[in-house]
Structure of HD-like signal output (HDOD) domain, no enzymatic activity:
Amino acid sequence: MHSAQELVANVITLASLPTIYLRIRDELDAPTGSVAGVAHAISADPAIASSLLRLANSAFYGYGGKIDTISRAVTVLGIQQVHDLVLAISVSGAFSLFAPRHLDMPRFWRGSVMRGLAAREIGRNQGMIGVERLFVIGMLSDIGHLVMYQTVPELADEARTVAAATREPLHEAERRIVGCDHAEVAAALMAHWRLPTSFVDIVGAQTTPRLGGDYVYEAAMVHVAARIAEADQENESSTAAAERIDPVIWTLLEMEPASLRRIRESAELDLAGYTALFFPNLGNERARA
């Protein structure tokens, strides 16, 4: 049996966040941190700077190509949102060379984007402020599976196969077969990377939101978002997906199960566009496959 910390220890040298992200985080944490300092740090990495400008000028952010410098991007989007977007770009880059057995990477990343979009849509539905952070948290919430399929691929695949055949919740099958589940692994990796506490706690509690502490509400949103993404990939009906969610979750969120369909449809509208923005090479990889 394996612990989450053990699995993370086996990949930290392979999946390290780039220095540019660490510099941005240090700039944000410093008492003297500034927009200029963050912009300077981002500009030092042309690839990340280019990705950030592409995102900022996309139709989804509504600035119509008017953001032509990193300084303006930081000023317009805000330091926190820039941090979160650079984090998402950095994490996808850190895992870009991973090719785990039993895992279709284009499918995985599309599913991750769907998680983020669904989490954001739930936040909007609830009138939350700062829902863009929910998008990034949702998008990164399944990275535990990347670690598991890279370190214990046979056990991870066995857990998924058993769960699919028996309808046992995947995280329960993983705990029984692997020794830990994907949420624990993702939280352990995020803690090692020293990501914000909210990321660690929300992602760690996504399978059991009541354990989310101060972030139980957000963990419940990511929980529902994960079910929506799974339903989308498995061609499961929204009604069936909603029925598999514990009624306690719906009560906690003060949502009706019937709302899942509308949330899913809204997220699906943006799926192709956001996937192309964050992972422009996925289409090529699919074609080669």
